[in-house]
């Protein structure tokens, strides 16, 4: 659907769970994760609709907190065991690991505007000590750098590539951290405290934040004569 509003158009009709849609760099294709056929695989479908096609042999964690494509050339996603981030070439269908062997589980890869730096979240246990961290990897040379020791999922980047936007693992206000490391800063306070907000995403130009918000209502009911063994009164 248009960001300016309007009717939504359904583009997949699979009898399965289909999540984490992302755009191709040219905006003509959408990649997503599907449980079709009982396997969590990467699929793609034309943005205007059509026949979706699976990338056979891919195995994605359904709890990956998202996959990534534009502006990078390859589709990124946490592996099924969450031990690494895989890079899929959409032309050849070949898959390769992004990270060296490191302990912990990896989530939520997000490309920088340059298409080669990737922010991601790592959760690990080392020596009985829990680690919750945001990391940056340069896919051009494999360089790894710790950005912040916090439990935050990357949700996107600023247009100039200087800031990584974050959201707490348990959700909450949008924050940011410098791509060169430093303290985490409050950035976007969530409006309408009476709404229940989901995970935020950021537009490619880094200026618009999008999320699903919902309201909840509660009622108190009185049921009379609910116990059939009691005499009616």
Summary?
With 233 residues, the protein is mainly β. It is built from no helices and 19 strands.
Description:
With 233 residues, this protein is mostly beta strands. The protein has one domain (18-214): TolB, C-terminal domain (Neuraminidase, 6 Propeller). It is 0% helix and 39% strand. The protein contains no helices and 19 strands. The chain has strands at 18-23, 29-34, 41-46, 53-54, 75-78, 85-88, 95-97, 105-111, 117-126, 129-138, 144-148, 152-157, 163-168, 174-178, 185-188, 196-197, 201-202, 209-210, 213-214. The strands form six sheets. It has a four-stranded antiparallel sheet, with no helix packed on it. A four-stranded antiparallel sheet has the order 8-9-10-11, with no helix packed on it. The termini are far apart.
Strand order of the largest sheet: 1-2-3-4
What is the CATH superfamily? Answer: TolB, C-terminal domain
CATH uppermost class: Mainly Beta
Helix and strand pattern? EEEEEEEEEEEEEEEEEEE
Shape estimate:
globular
Helix content: under 10%
| Number of extended strands | 19
Q: What's the rounded overall pLDDT mean?
A: 89
What structural class should be given to the helix and strand makeup? mainly beta
- Our count of domains comes out at 1
Largest sheet: 4 strands, antiparallel
Rg calculated over all Cα atoms: 21 Å
Measured between the Cα atoms of the first and last residue, the distance is: 56 Å
Number of helices: 0
């Amino acid at each position: 659907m248009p960001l300016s509003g309007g009717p939504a158009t359904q583009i997949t009709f699979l009898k399965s769970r289909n999540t984490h849609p992302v755009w191709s760099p040219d905006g003509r294709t959408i990649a997503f994760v599907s449980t079709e056929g009982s396997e969590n695989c990467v699929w793609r479908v034309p943005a205007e609709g059509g026949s979706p096609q699976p990338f056979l042999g891919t195995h994605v964690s359904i709890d990956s907190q998202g996959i990534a494509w534009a502006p990078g050339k390859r589709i990124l996603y946490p592996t099924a065991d969450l031990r690494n981030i895989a890079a899929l070439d959409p032309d050849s269908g070949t898959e390769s690991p992004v990270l060296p062997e490191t302990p912990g589980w990896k989530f939520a890869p997000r490309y920088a505007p340059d298409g080669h730096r990737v922010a991601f979240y790592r959760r690990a246990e080392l020596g009985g000590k829990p680690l919750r961290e945001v990391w940056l990897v340069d896919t051009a040379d494999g360089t790894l750098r710790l950005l912040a020791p916090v439990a935050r999922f990357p949700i996107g980047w600023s247009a100039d590539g200087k800031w990584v936007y974050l959201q707490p693992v348990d959700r909450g206000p949008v924050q940011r951290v410098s791509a060169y490391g430093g303290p985490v800063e409050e950035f976007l306070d969530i409006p309408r405290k009476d709404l229940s907000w989901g995970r935020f995403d950021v537009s490619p130009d880094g200026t618009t934040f999008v999320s699903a918000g919902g309201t909840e209502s509660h009622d108190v009911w009185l049921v009379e004569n609910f116990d059939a063994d009691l005499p009616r009164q």
